[in-house]
Each structure stands twice: as structure tokens, then as C-alpha cells.
Amino acid sequence: MASQRDVKNKIASVKNIQKITRAMEMVAAARLRRAEQRITALRPYADAIARMTRQAAEAAGSEAARLPLLSEHKTRERRALLLVTGDRGLAGAFNSQIIRAGVRQNDEHAADGAQTVWYAAGRRGVSSISFRGFELAGSYVGFTDRPAYADARTIAQDLIGAYVDNHIDSVEMVFNSFISPLTQRVTRQVLLPVSAEVVEGGEEEESAHGARRVNVDYEPDPESILRRLVPDYVETSIYRALVESAAGFFGAQMTAMRSASDNAGEIITEYTLQMNRARQAEITQEIMEVVAGAEGVA
Hints:
Blueprint: H1 4-60, E1 78-84, H2 94-111, E2 115-121, H3 123-131, E3 136-140, H4 149-164, E4 170-180, E5 183-192, H5 196-199, H6 202-208, H7 222-297
Parallel strand pairs: 1-2, 1-4, 2-3
Antiparallel strand pairs: 4-5
């Protein structure tokens, strides 16, 4: 049985860890509230951009197919995959589930005879993909805790440029959608070519949300407006994924640190009982020695 000093040292060590995890939990909770506010402010704007893109595509008609970002390539041999992770860990399965989803998607591409072109945002994604021996065409780190629109624009410009120059034939994005502090859902979204669900079928979604369709006069022509809107739609989609991922990360980290603090409390309770048993054993031993000494004197 361990001595009282050894058990006391263990208790002190666990208490120090518990202080750290509680502090990290409180920091994550504070950052989560700010991230939730950003999501609340961003979602209506992102939905409006998608709606405007649909309306402009409908107005442009067959001319919309002439835009490079709306037209599919003849081949699908090089498929880009953008993984959105965090720069840091200690957030449970938040990062690992994105990596697993990306690897599964790569296996599907390989089964179709296609090559995956890897892009990753967040140090965890960059390091994990590199560790698995895959070459990254683009890596973006240092901003996932508080992403700015400029970060999304940088990523979008790289992907759009590669798509227009025929270096890649499609772009998919995998990220954690923020549902609640306890729940993050792995989401896969096709960015390029801009999917038919974006440029078509807007009527059903707008009617479902009670939006009233109106006739719009475009100046200049709808094709020119659409040419400007589509890159904005891609940038906004990436920015929304970054913001959703940031909120999901803080929620996952807060939950993980709370669980770690609770586990540390249970370990402290167990070590305290162990220390009490050791104290009782030492007291019993001392009493037996005193009794034995008294009998020897007698």
C-alpha cells in the first residue's frame, strides 16, 4: 500500500490538473458565447447570398452555364477536399471525426479511380493529413479560434483559381456544423462546381420559409451579376464553415474540460479514501507496536 506522502502528492497533482481544466472550461464557455453571436449574425447573410445567387441564375437562364464556376468539368479525376479543423486539441473527438470523414471520402475517390487533392484549415488537420503521408495543396493555420472573412477569401481564391485553371475538377468541404454546445454534426458540402441545389430549386426553399418571390430588374445583365455573386457565395460558404467550426470547437472543448474536471474530482475522492486507509493502517501498526512493547516490559 502506498504511503500517506505518496497519496498526498498524487492528490495535489490531480488538484492542479483540475484547476487547469476548470479554467479552460470557463475560457471556452466565454468564447463560445461570442462565437454563437457571430453565427446568429452570419446565418441570415449567408442565406441571403444563396438566395440572391439562385435568383440571378434563374434570371440568367442558359447563360448561367457559361460561367466557369457553374459548369462541370468533363472529367472528375482530381477532386479537392477541404477539411476544416481546429488549431488546438483537448476537445474530445472534434478534430478526429473530421479527419476520419476526410479519409473515408478519400477512399471513395480512390474507389472511383479519382485522386484527392488535399486542403486543410487548422493545425490539427494539417498535421494529421501530413502524418498520414498525404501531400497538401493548401494549408491554412493560425486563425481557426476567431476566423475573419479575409481568411475565407484567401482559401476561396486558392480553390477558385485551381478550379478555373483545371488543376482540380471539384471541391468538397468537410466541417463541424454547430448544433449546440454538446452537439457538432459532421457536414459535407460541395463548393465547386456550385451545385444545382443552389442555382435551381430555390422556389421550394423560399416557399418553405414563407419568403415572397419578387421580380427583379438587373443592371447590368443577370450574367454579370451572377459572375460577381458566385465567388461571394463560395467565400461566404467557407466563412460560415469556419465560424460554425469555431463555435463547435469551443463547445466541444468546454464539454471535454467539464468531463475532465468531473473525472479529476472522482480520482481525488478515490485517493482520499486510499490515504485514509493508509493512515488507519499506520495508526493500527503503531498501536500494535505499543501493545507489544508494553507486554515485553511486563
